[in-house]
Amino acid sequence: MTMFKKTTSVKSALLTLLLPAGIGLMALAWLVHGLLLDRMSREFVESRLKDEVAFLEHQIRSSDGNVDALQTGDYFQEMFHHAFAIHSPTQTTISPDSWAPLLEPLINTDRDGTFRVSGAKELNAPSDILAYRKAFRVNDTPMVVIVSEDLGALKRSQAELHAWTAIVSILLILMLAGVIWFGINFSMRPVVSLKTALKRLQVGEISRIDVQAPEEFRPLVQQLNQLLDSLDMRLERSRDALANLSHSVKTPISALRQILEDTSRPLDNDLRHQMAARLGDLDKQLEAEMRRSRFAGPQIGKSAYPLKQARDLLWMLGRLYPEKSFEMSSSLPEESRWPIEEHDLNEILGNLLDNAGKWSSRCVELSLSQNNGLARIVVTDDGQGVKENELTSLGQRGLRLDEQTPGHGLGLAVVREIIGRYGGHIRFSAASDGGLQVIVEISS
Question: Is the pTM here over 0.85, yes or no?
Answer without folding.
Answer: no
